[in-house]
Amino acid sequence: MLRWLIGGGREPQGLAEKSSVQTVGEEQTQNPYTELLVLKGHQDIVRFLVQIDDCRFASAGDDGIVCLWNAQTGEKLFELHGHTHKITAIAPFSSSDAFEEKRHLIITASADRTVIVWDCTSGRQVQKVSCFHSTVKCLTVLQRLDVWLSGGSDLCVWNRKLDLLCKTSHLTDAVIFRLTDSNNESEGWNVLEVKRLVDHQDNILSLVSVNDLTFVTGSHVGELIVWDALDWTKQASECNFWDSSVHPDVQPEIKLSQSPNETSVQHLTSDEEYVFAAVGKGIYVYNLQMKCVIACQRTAHDSSVLHIEKLPNRQLISCSEDGSVRIWELREKQQLPAEPVPTGFFNMWGFGRANKQANQAAKKMQENTPMYFLELVGDLIGHSSAVQMFLYFGELGLATCSADHLIILWKDGERESSLRSLTLFQKLAQNGDLQLKL
Protein backbone atom coordinates (compact mmCIF):
# COMPACT_ATOMS: atom_id res chain seq x y z
CA MET A 1 0.00 0.00 0.00
CA LEU A 2 1.31 3.47 -0.82
CA ARG A 3 0.27 7.09 -0.54
CA TRP A 4 1.51 9.99 -2.68
CA LEU A 5 2.10 13.28 -0.90
CA ILE A 6 3.42 16.56 -2.28
CA GLY A 7 4.98 19.39 -0.33
CA GLY A 8 7.66 17.86 1.88
CA GLY A 9 6.06 16.89 5.20
CA ARG A 10 4.83 18.27 8.49
CA GLU A 11 6.20 20.42 11.23
CA PRO A 12 7.69 18.53 14.19
CA GLN A 13 5.81 18.48 17.45
CA GLY A 14 6.81 20.91 20.17
CA LEU A 15 9.71 19.89 22.36
CA ALA A 16 9.75 20.02 26.13
CA GLU A 17 12.57 22.55 26.01
CA LYS A 18 14.12 24.75 23.36
CA SER A 19 16.32 22.77 20.99
CA SER A 20 19.87 23.83 20.09
CA VAL A 21 19.66 21.95 16.79
CA GLN A 22 20.38 23.95 13.64
CA THR A 23 17.30 24.77 11.55
CA VAL A 24 16.78 25.51 7.88
CA GLY A 25 14.31 27.90 6.26
CA GLU A 26 10.93 26.76 4.98
CA GLU A 27 11.95 27.22 1.32
CA GLN A 28 14.88 24.76 1.49
CA THR A 29 16.04 25.79 -1.98
CA GLN A 30 18.89 23.25 -2.01
CA ASN A 31 16.66 20.35 -0.93
CA PRO A 32 15.34 18.53 -4.02
CA TYR A 33 13.13 16.08 -2.07
CA THR A 34 9.80 17.93 -2.17
CA GLU A 35 7.60 14.91 -2.96
CA LEU A 36 7.28 11.63 -1.12
CA LEU A 37 5.69 8.21 -1.33
CA VAL A 38 4.59 6.50 1.88
CA LEU A 39 4.87 2.70 1.62
CA LYS A 40 2.91 0.44 3.97
CA GLY A 41 3.77 -3.23 4.18
CA HIS A 42 5.10 -3.90 7.68
CA GLN A 43 3.36 -4.33 11.03
CA ASP A 44 6.31 -3.51 13.28
CA ILE A 45 9.63 -1.62 13.32
CA VAL A 46 11.38 -1.61 9.93
CA ARG A 47 15.09 -1.88 10.71
CA PHE A 48 16.77 -2.89 7.45
CA LEU A 49 16.90 -1.73 3.84
CA VAL A 50 19.15 -3.39 1.26
CA GLN A 51 19.57 -2.53 -2.41
CA ILE A 52 19.01 -5.39 -4.86
CA ASP A 53 19.78 -3.55 -8.11
CA ASP A 54 19.37 -0.07 -9.61
CA CYS A 55 15.61 0.05 -9.08
CA ARG A 56 14.72 -2.58 -6.44
CA PHE A 57 15.27 -2.86 -2.71
CA ALA A 58 14.18 -5.06 0.18
CA SER A 59 12.94 -4.11 3.64
CA ALA A 60 12.79 -6.17 6.83
CA GLY A 61 12.21 -5.74 10.54
CA ASP A 62 10.63 -6.94 13.73
CA ASP A 63 7.53 -8.45 12.11
CA GLY A 64 9.66 -11.14 10.43
CA ILE A 65 8.41 -10.15 6.96
CA VAL A 66 10.61 -9.27 3.98
CA CYS A 67 9.15 -6.90 1.39
CA LEU A 68 10.57 -6.23 -2.08
CA TRP A 69 9.87 -2.80 -3.59
CA ASN A 70 10.23 -0.86 -6.83
CA ALA A 71 12.23 2.26 -5.97
CA GLN A 72 10.77 4.25 -8.88
CA THR A 73 7.05 3.60 -8.42
CA GLY A 74 6.86 2.41 -4.82
CA GLU A 75 5.10 -0.77 -5.92
CA LYS A 76 5.40 -3.73 -3.56
CA LEU A 77 6.71 -6.57 -5.69
CA PHE A 78 6.71 -9.41 -3.15
CA GLU A 79 5.92 -10.04 0.51
CA LEU A 80 8.07 -12.89 1.76
CA HIS A 81 6.97 -15.02 4.72
CA GLY A 82 9.16 -17.70 6.28
CA HIS A 83 10.50 -16.41 9.59
CA THR A 84 8.55 -16.67 12.84
CA HIS A 85 10.47 -14.02 14.80
CA LYS A 86 12.06 -10.66 14.06
CA ILE A 87 14.73 -10.41 11.38
CA THR A 88 18.19 -9.66 12.76
CA ALA A 89 20.28 -9.38 9.57
CA ILE A 90 19.89 -9.19 5.80
CA ALA A 91 22.31 -9.15 2.88
CA PRO A 92 22.06 -9.20 -0.94
CA PHE A 93 23.82 -12.06 -2.73
CA SER A 94 24.08 -12.32 -6.52
CA SER A 95 24.84 -15.70 -8.07
CA SER A 96 28.03 -15.76 -10.12
CA ASP A 97 27.88 -19.13 -11.88
CA ALA A 98 29.14 -18.69 -15.45
CA PHE A 99 26.90 -21.50 -16.69
CA GLU A 100 23.59 -20.05 -15.55
CA GLU A 101 21.77 -16.75 -15.77
CA LYS A 102 22.70 -14.28 -13.04
CA ARG A 103 20.20 -14.32 -10.18
CA HIS A 104 19.64 -11.71 -7.51
CA LEU A 105 19.25 -13.33 -4.08
CA ILE A 106 18.89 -12.03 -0.55
CA ILE A 107 19.81 -13.80 2.68
CA THR A 108 17.89 -13.14 5.89
CA ALA A 109 18.60 -14.20 9.47
CA SER A 110 16.08 -14.21 12.29
CA ALA A 111 15.70 -14.55 16.03
CA ASP A 112 14.00 -17.88 15.25
CA ARG A 113 17.58 -19.18 14.65
CA THR A 114 17.11 -19.74 10.95
CA VAL A 115 18.64 -18.32 7.78
CA ILE A 116 16.68 -18.20 4.51
CA VAL A 117 17.84 -17.53 0.95
CA TRP A 118 15.24 -15.83 -1.27
CA ASP A 119 15.03 -15.41 -5.05
CA CYS A 120 14.27 -11.74 -5.76
CA THR A 121 12.88 -12.42 -9.23
CA SER A 122 10.30 -15.05 -8.26
CA GLY A 123 9.89 -14.18 -4.58
CA ARG A 124 10.35 -17.83 -3.69
CA GLN A 125 12.31 -19.36 -0.85
CA VAL A 126 15.41 -21.06 -2.29
CA GLN A 127 16.71 -22.75 0.84
CA LYS A 128 16.48 -22.62 4.63
CA VAL A 129 19.05 -23.46 7.30
CA SER A 130 17.89 -24.30 10.83
CA CYS A 131 21.03 -25.70 12.46
CA PHE A 132 22.01 -22.62 14.49
CA HIS A 133 22.31 -22.82 18.27
CA SER A 134 21.78 -19.08 18.73
CA THR A 135 20.55 -16.05 16.81
CA VAL A 136 22.59 -14.96 13.79
CA LYS A 137 23.24 -11.25 14.30
CA CYS A 138 25.18 -10.38 11.15
CA LEU A 139 25.60 -11.56 7.56
CA THR A 140 28.45 -10.74 5.18
CA VAL A 141 28.83 -11.78 1.56
CA LEU A 142 32.28 -12.24 0.02
CA GLN A 143 31.24 -12.02 -3.61
CA ARG A 144 34.71 -12.60 -5.04
CA LEU A 145 35.03 -15.91 -3.18
CA ASP A 146 31.38 -16.81 -3.77
CA VAL A 147 30.82 -17.48 -0.06
CA TRP A 148 28.95 -15.79 2.76
CA LEU A 149 29.51 -15.58 6.53
CA SER A 150 27.11 -15.64 9.46
CA GLY A 151 28.05 -14.30 12.89
CA GLY A 152 26.54 -14.97 16.31
CA SER A 153 27.88 -17.29 18.98
CA ASP A 154 29.78 -18.94 16.09
CA LEU A 155 31.39 -17.62 12.94
CA CYS A 156 30.31 -19.82 10.02
CA VAL A 157 31.36 -19.84 6.37
CA TRP A 158 28.87 -21.06 3.75
CA ASN A 159 28.86 -21.50 0.00
CA ARG A 160 26.06 -20.43 -2.33
CA LYS A 161 24.31 -23.79 -1.92
CA LEU A 162 24.27 -23.31 1.87
CA ASP A 163 26.83 -26.00 2.53
CA LEU A 164 28.73 -25.28 5.76
CA LEU A 165 32.39 -24.96 4.76
CA CYS A 166 33.86 -24.27 8.20
CA LYS A 167 33.11 -22.63 11.53
CA THR A 168 34.87 -21.31 14.60
CA SER A 169 33.76 -20.24 18.06
CA HIS A 170 33.03 -16.56 18.14
CA LEU A 171 35.04 -14.71 20.79
CA THR A 172 33.77 -11.87 22.93
CA ASP A 173 36.70 -9.64 21.92
CA ALA A 174 36.97 -7.97 18.51
CA VAL A 175 38.94 -10.46 16.44
CA ILE A 176 40.36 -10.38 12.92
CA PHE A 177 40.11 -13.69 11.08
CA ARG A 178 41.71 -14.87 7.87
CA LEU A 179 39.69 -17.14 5.57
CA THR A 180 41.84 -19.63 3.67
CA ASP A 181 41.02 -22.15 0.97
CA SER A 182 43.37 -25.12 1.31
CA ASN A 183 44.73 -26.76 -1.84
CA ASN A 184 44.05 -30.09 -0.17
CA GLU A 185 40.42 -30.96 -0.95
CA SER A 186 40.13 -33.02 2.22
CA GLU A 187 40.96 -29.99 4.38
CA GLY A 188 38.85 -27.43 2.47
CA TRP A 189 38.21 -23.98 3.93
CA ASN A 190 39.56 -22.80 7.26
CA VAL A 191 39.16 -19.75 9.51
CA LEU A 192 42.30 -18.60 11.31
CA GLU A 193 42.53 -16.01 14.07
CA VAL A 194 44.97 -13.25 13.07
CA LYS A 195 44.70 -10.56 15.72
CA ARG A 196 42.54 -9.31 18.56
CA LEU A 197 41.77 -5.58 18.51
CA VAL A 198 42.40 -4.66 22.14
CA ASP A 199 43.15 -0.95 21.67
CA HIS A 200 39.56 0.16 22.28
CA GLN A 201 38.47 0.79 25.86
CA ASP A 202 34.94 -0.49 25.22
CA ASN A 203 32.86 -2.48 22.73
CA ILE A 204 33.26 -1.72 19.02
CA LEU A 205 29.91 -0.55 17.62
CA SER A 206 30.84 0.41 14.05
CA LEU A 207 33.38 -0.46 11.37
CA VAL A 208 33.98 0.84 7.86
CA SER A 209 36.45 -0.23 5.17
CA VAL A 210 38.10 2.80 3.56
CA ASN A 211 40.05 0.83 0.94
CA ASP A 212 42.17 -2.32 0.69
CA LEU A 213 44.80 -0.76 2.97
CA THR A 214 42.74 0.95 5.68
CA PHE A 215 39.70 0.38 7.88
CA VAL A 216 38.24 2.37 10.77
CA THR A 217 36.44 1.33 13.95
CA GLY A 218 34.34 3.28 16.45
CA SER A 219 33.53 2.33 20.03
CA HIS A 220 30.81 2.70 22.64
CA VAL A 221 32.77 5.41 24.49
CA GLY A 222 33.48 7.60 21.46
CA GLU A 223 36.87 6.34 20.29
CA LEU A 224 37.72 6.25 16.59
CA ILE A 225 40.75 4.22 15.47
CA VAL A 226 42.28 4.04 11.98
CA TRP A 227 43.88 0.65 11.24
CA ASP A 228 46.37 -0.67 8.70
CA ALA A 229 44.60 -3.56 6.93
CA LEU A 230 47.87 -5.30 6.03
CA ASP A 231 49.64 -5.61 9.39
CA TRP A 232 46.63 -4.73 11.63
CA THR A 233 48.47 -1.92 13.45
CA LYS A 234 46.91 1.31 14.67
CA GLN A 235 47.65 4.24 12.35
CA ALA A 236 45.79 7.00 14.18
CA SER A 237 43.03 7.60 16.71
CA GLU A 238 40.58 10.28 17.78
CA CYS A 239 39.21 10.31 21.31
CA ASN A 240 38.40 14.00 21.71
CA PHE A 241 34.97 14.27 20.11
CA TRP A 242 33.59 15.74 23.31
CA ASP A 243 36.53 17.97 24.27
CA SER A 244 35.41 21.55 23.58
CA SER A 245 39.03 22.76 23.58
CA VAL A 246 39.68 20.63 20.48
CA HIS A 247 36.66 22.10 18.67
CA PRO A 248 36.69 25.78 19.82
CA ASP A 249 34.06 26.87 17.27
CA VAL A 250 31.39 24.87 19.07
CA GLN A 251 29.48 26.28 22.01
CA PRO A 252 30.23 23.98 24.99
CA GLU A 253 27.32 22.27 26.68
CA ILE A 254 26.98 22.37 30.46
CA LYS A 255 26.20 18.88 31.71
CA LEU A 256 26.75 17.09 35.01
CA SER A 257 27.20 13.76 33.23
CA GLN A 258 26.96 12.16 29.82
CA SER A 259 25.11 8.96 29.08
CA PRO A 260 26.93 6.36 26.95
CA ASN A 261 24.60 6.99 24.00
CA GLU A 262 25.79 10.59 23.82
CA THR A 263 29.35 9.52 23.04
CA SER A 264 28.82 6.27 21.14
CA VAL A 265 30.06 6.04 17.56
CA GLN A 266 26.82 4.64 16.16
CA HIS A 267 27.76 4.55 12.48
CA LEU A 268 30.70 5.23 10.16
CA THR A 269 30.95 5.85 6.44
CA SER A 270 33.92 6.88 4.33
CA ASP A 271 35.40 7.89 1.01
CA GLU A 272 39.09 7.95 0.11
CA GLU A 273 39.61 11.28 1.88
CA TYR A 274 37.31 11.45 4.90
CA VAL A 275 35.62 9.32 7.54
CA PHE A 276 32.17 10.56 8.55
CA ALA A 277 31.18 9.55 12.08
CA ALA A 278 27.78 9.62 13.77
CA VAL A 279 28.71 10.26 17.41
CA GLY A 280 25.85 10.67 19.86
CA LYS A 281 23.62 13.44 18.48
CA GLY A 282 26.42 14.82 16.33
CA ILE A 283 28.29 14.37 13.05
CA TYR A 284 32.07 14.57 12.73
CA VAL A 285 34.26 14.71 9.62
CA TYR A 286 37.70 13.14 10.09
CA ASN A 287 40.45 13.81 7.52
CA LEU A 288 42.44 10.61 7.00
CA GLN A 289 45.54 12.35 5.67
CA MET A 290 45.69 15.07 8.33
CA LYS A 291 44.55 12.60 11.04
CA CYS A 292 42.21 15.09 12.69
CA VAL A 293 38.60 16.27 12.79
CA ILE A 294 38.14 19.12 10.30
CA ALA A 295 34.42 19.78 10.77
CA CYS A 296 31.67 18.86 13.19
CA GLN A 297 28.07 19.50 14.10
CA ARG A 298 27.88 18.47 17.74
CA THR A 299 24.08 18.67 17.87
CA ALA A 300 22.99 17.62 14.40
CA HIS A 301 19.73 16.08 15.69
CA ASP A 302 17.65 16.17 18.87
CA SER A 303 18.46 12.49 19.54
CA SER A 304 21.15 9.97 18.61
CA VAL A 305 22.19 9.80 14.96
CA LEU A 306 21.65 6.20 13.78
CA HIS A 307 22.86 6.28 10.19
CA ILE A 308 24.94 8.54 7.95
CA GLU A 309 25.99 8.36 4.29
CA LYS A 310 28.13 10.40 1.92
CA LEU A 311 26.41 11.74 -1.20
CA PRO A 312 27.86 13.34 -4.34
CA ASN A 313 28.75 17.06 -4.34
CA ARG A 314 30.19 17.04 -0.79
CA GLN A 315 26.83 16.31 0.80
CA LEU A 316 25.82 14.01 3.68
CA ILE A 317 22.53 12.54 4.81
CA SER A 318 21.85 11.62 8.43
CA CYS A 319 18.87 10.12 10.24
CA SER A 320 18.05 9.98 13.92
CA GLU A 321 15.95 8.62 16.75
CA ASP A 322 14.11 11.95 16.67
CA GLY A 323 12.39 10.88 13.42
CA SER A 324 14.14 13.35 11.14
CA VAL A 325 16.31 12.96 8.05
CA ARG A 326 18.72 15.82 7.35
CA ILE A 327 20.92 16.81 4.41
CA TRP A 328 24.25 18.51 5.08
CA GLU A 329 26.87 20.11 2.88
CA LEU A 330 30.58 20.26 3.75
CA ARG A 331 31.71 23.82 3.08
CA GLU A 332 34.99 25.65 3.51
CA LYS A 333 35.10 28.55 5.94
CA GLN A 334 36.33 32.01 5.00
CA GLN A 335 39.82 32.31 6.43
CA LEU A 336 40.20 35.21 8.84
CA PRO A 337 43.53 37.00 9.34
CA ALA A 338 45.47 35.75 12.35
CA GLU A 339 45.12 37.91 15.45
CA PRO A 340 48.31 39.57 16.77
CA VAL A 341 49.95 37.96 19.78
CA PRO A 342 48.97 39.90 22.94
CA THR A 343 51.69 41.53 25.03
CA GLY A 344 51.90 42.90 28.56
CA PHE A 345 50.76 41.54 31.86
CA PHE A 346 48.17 39.13 30.48
CA ASN A 347 50.88 37.45 28.41
CA MET A 348 53.39 37.19 31.26
CA TRP A 349 53.03 33.42 31.43
CA GLY A 350 53.75 32.99 27.72
CA PHE A 351 56.82 35.12 27.01
CA GLY A 352 60.11 33.92 25.50
CA ARG A 353 61.30 31.91 22.53
CA ALA A 354 59.15 28.89 23.30
CA ASN A 355 55.98 30.94 23.12
CA LYS A 356 57.13 32.60 19.90
CA GLN A 357 57.82 29.24 18.31
CA ALA A 358 54.46 27.93 19.47
CA ASN A 359 52.69 30.95 17.96
CA GLN A 360 54.55 30.49 14.70
CA ALA A 361 53.63 26.80 14.62
CA ALA A 362 49.98 27.61 15.34
CA LYS A 363 49.97 30.27 12.62
CA LYS A 364 51.54 27.86 10.14
CA MET A 365 48.95 25.21 11.01
CA GLN A 366 46.15 27.77 10.57
CA GLU A 367 47.51 28.69 7.13
CA ASN A 368 47.91 25.08 6.01
CA THR A 369 44.74 23.63 7.55
CA PRO A 370 41.54 24.42 5.66
CA MET A 371 38.63 24.96 8.00
CA TYR A 372 35.28 23.43 7.11
CA PHE A 373 31.76 23.39 8.53
CA LEU A 374 28.59 21.40 7.98
CA GLU A 375 25.73 23.49 6.65
CA LEU A 376 22.17 22.19 6.95
CA VAL A 377 20.55 22.38 3.49
CA GLY A 378 17.57 20.06 3.89
CA ASP A 379 15.25 18.74 6.60
CA LEU A 380 12.97 15.84 5.66
CA ILE A 381 10.08 15.51 8.10
CA GLY A 382 7.74 12.61 7.42
CA HIS A 383 8.32 9.86 9.98
CA SER A 384 6.76 9.95 13.42
CA SER A 385 9.36 7.76 15.13
CA ALA A 386 13.05 6.81 14.98
CA VAL A 387 14.43 6.56 11.44
CA GLN A 388 16.61 3.45 11.40
CA MET A 389 18.46 3.82 8.09
CA PHE A 390 18.13 4.85 4.44
CA LEU A 391 19.18 3.98 0.90
CA TYR A 392 20.24 6.47 -1.78
CA PHE A 393 19.11 5.68 -5.34
CA GLY A 394 20.53 8.69 -7.19
CA GLU A 395 17.92 10.12 -9.56
CA LEU A 396 15.25 7.78 -8.19
CA GLY A 397 15.52 9.43 -4.78
CA LEU A 398 15.95 8.27 -1.21
CA ALA A 399 14.30 5.45 0.79
CA THR A 400 13.99 5.63 4.59
CA CYS A 401 12.62 3.14 7.14
CA SER A 402 11.39 3.79 10.65
CA ALA A 403 10.03 2.49 13.92
CA ASP A 404 6.64 3.88 12.81
CA HIS A 405 6.35 0.76 10.56
CA LEU A 406 6.63 2.93 7.42
CA ILE A 407 8.98 3.25 4.48
CA ILE A 408 9.15 6.61 2.69
CA LEU A 409 10.47 7.24 -0.80
CA TRP A 410 11.67 10.83 -1.05
CA LYS A 411 11.49 12.14 -4.62
CA ASP A 412 13.03 15.06 -6.53
CA GLY A 413 9.93 17.21 -7.08
CA GLU A 414 11.19 18.93 -10.23
CA ARG A 415 12.18 15.63 -11.84
CA GLU A 416 8.89 13.95 -10.99
CA SER A 417 6.94 16.93 -12.38
CA SER A 418 8.94 16.78 -15.62
CA LEU A 419 8.32 13.03 -15.92
CA ARG A 420 4.57 13.51 -15.45
CA SER A 421 4.51 16.26 -18.08
CA LEU A 422 6.46 14.06 -20.50
CA THR A 423 4.11 11.13 -19.91
CA LEU A 424 1.07 13.35 -20.53
CA PHE A 425 2.64 14.75 -23.71
CA GLN A 426 3.34 11.26 -25.05
CA LYS A 427 -0.19 10.09 -24.22
CA LEU A 428 -1.75 13.04 -26.04
CA ALA A 429 0.49 12.42 -29.04
CA GLN A 430 -0.52 8.74 -29.19
CA ASN A 431 -4.23 9.57 -28.99
CA GLY A 432 -3.94 12.21 -31.71
CA ASP A 433 -5.11 14.96 -29.35
CA LEU A 434 -1.91 16.93 -29.75
CA GLN A 435 -1.99 19.48 -32.54
CA LEU A 436 0.99 21.54 -33.56
CA LYS A 437 0.29 25.02 -34.90
CA LEU A 438 2.90 26.55 -37.19
TrEMBL record:
InterPro entries: WD40/YVTN_repeat-like_dom_sf, WD40_PAC1, WD40_repeat_CS, WD40_repeat_dom_sf, WD40_rpt, WDR41. The keyword tRNA processing does not apply. GO terms for cellular component: lysosomal membrane. Keywords: Autophagy, Cytoplasm, Repeat, WD repeat. It is found in: Cytoplasm. It holds the Pfam family Beta-prop_WDR41. WD repeats lie at residues 39-79, 98-128, 298-338. Its main location: cytoplasm. SUPFAM superfamilies: WD40 repeat-like. It comes from the Eukaryota. GO terms for biological process: autophagy; regulation of autophagy. Non-catalytic component of the C9orf72-SMCR8 complex, a complex that has guanine nucleotide exchange factor (GEF) activity and regulates autophagy. The C9orf72-SMCR8 complex promotes the exchange of GDP to GTP, converting inactive GDP-bound RAB8A and RAB39B into their active GTP-bound form, thereby promoting autophagosome maturation. As part of the C9orf72-SMCR8 complex, stimulates RAB8A and RAB11A GTPase activity in vitro, however WDR42 is shown not be an essential complex component for this function. Component of the C9orf72-SMCR8 complex, at least composed of C9orf72, SMCR8 and WDR41. The complex is formed of two protomers, each individually consisting of one molecule each of C9orf72, SMCR8 and WDR41. The protomers homodimerize via an interaction between C9orf72 (via C-terminus) and SMCR8 (via N-terminus). Within each protomer SMCR8 (via DENN domain) acts as a bridging protein between WDR41 (via C-terminus and N-terminus) and C9orf72 (via C-terminus). The C9orf72-SMCR8 complex associates with the ULK1/ATG1 kinase complex. This is WD repeat-containing protein 41. The gene is WDR41.
